[in-house]
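Dear support,

Our group has been running a series of protein-ligand predictions, and this particular one with protoporphyrin IX containing FE is the one our PI (initials K.S.) wants archived with full inputs and outputs. We had some confusion internally about which version of the output was final, so please treat the block below as the authoritative record. The input we submitted was:
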Amino acid sequence: MSLTYQQQKLVKATVPALREHGEKISSTFYKTMLSEHPELNDYFNAVNQKNGRQPRALTAVILNFAANISNISELIPKLERMCNKHCSLGIRPEHYEVVGQYLIQAFGEVLGPAMTPEVLVAWTKAYWMLAKMLIGREQQMYKDFEGWTSWRKFNIDRIVSESDDIYSFYLVPQDGKRLPAFLPGQYVSVQIQVPEGNLQSRQYSLSEAWREDYYRITVKRDEGSAYSNSVSKSYFNPGLVSNILIDQMTVGMVLNVSHPAGEFFLDLNNSSNVPLVLISAGVGITPMVAIANAVLKSQPDRQISWVHGSRKAVPFEQHITQLRKNHPNFRTTIFKSQLAQSDTASVTYDHNTRIDLAKISPEDVFLHHGGAEYFICGPEDFMIEMSRNLISRGVLASRIKLELFTTGDLALKFNKKVMHNV
Ligand SMILES: Cc1cc2nc3c(=O)[nH]c(=O)nc-3n(C[C@H](O)[C@H](O)[C@H](O)COP(=O)(O)OP(=O)(O)OC[C@H]3O[C@@H](n4cnc5c(N)ncnc54)[C@H](O)[C@@H]3O)c2cc1C
Ligand code: HEM
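Confirmed final output from the archive:
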């Protein structure tokens, strides 16, 4: 299925024109595909279609692939994120036929007469080269899922408020069978019916270390964008799924859940004992709870330093306090930007400001160790700021892992921006 030298040249020659019209490709390709294959609306995040994030992400990957078609090894680590996302959403090899057809049709519309029969053949081959890499990796992952390759029904067994707008859902499988192990940091997708009629899925990090009887996810209400005037503050475009989960889902109700997936994890199968630095903001705390709990259970002496920032209440506050009491090797630095009357310095918080790594001693983020691993999760700008700070103080980019709670294009741009330090 590889391209001849001539075909590689044909594909590469069209990339600048396709890049220039990337927005048009993104919008027409998905619009046509989803109107002619409405069943695919159940797979795609409706909001990411409206704001163009997902179509842009897919087109960008394909064009980058085409531009570097003679040297694709750089792309391989990036495929991991896509394949994990695809597998957590139940994407199948037959879906690639549909996507390929509409994508190449959109390329044809943009290129016009430049889409000669030879270019069409070359592009079709190029698409399938990439698609086969993804399909191959996804088949391997589905095999590891041992039969749980679609949605599995879970009962909501318990809902616990973790702070004003953050709730944990304890999910027990309806079939009563033992739950497969996952690596701390990974997520599941949750699928629900939305009022518009179709199904929508979102990812939620597992917020508890693996247990065979339940999984726990922790959901923050997405209020939407704030609009305020001199008298009041209101919100528009509230998040679809998080608000339904929090306002309408009750104990005993059923949720469709996917097999755990994700490439942001601590590899517990690796015998490493290097210190861990967990840096989280807001609801980015969720994968960190799973990582801390899993490590303190299996490697109770491992050094962990957790830096967390919340605007107000810190979710899982009591639990974190308990971990600190029980494990001298577990230290925390808590930043809170808005204090309540009940807050006490050095007890419920350490610094009354947004997270600022400069306020933490180098030892507390293991800067001199040389081998520590860094896990960061929070808003995009926050993660960029934290990574830049660490890299500028000598931490190797390869020792930093980031989890972005959104999809696509920014994730790719973002990795490039941070890792190449531009
Ligand atoms: C790997 C991963 C792990 C995650 N883990 C967690 C977790 O542990 N906990 C957690 O709470 N979340 C987590 N998330 C985020 C979660 O998946 C959802 O994105 C989040 O709950 C918001 O979903 P929603 O359906 O409520 O909002 P959506 O409806 O998807 O809306 C998202 C945003 O888009 C805006 N929006 C809505 N409509 C429009 C429009 N027409 N135009 C422009 N903007 C619009 C909304 O205001 C909102 O801010 C994770 C995401 C990923 C990718
Ligand atoms: C070569 C083909 C493909 C490429 C390059 C590709 C690329 C991508 C990328 C870059 C993402 C974003 C990952 C992230 O950062 O979260 C993504 C997500 C996704 N992809 Fe694909 N994809 C391909 C094929 C498909 C197919 C065949 C389907 C199914 C019809 C599909 C459905 C999805 C869905 C539903 C998401 C998540 C969307 C969201 O959350 O907004 N993709 N893909």
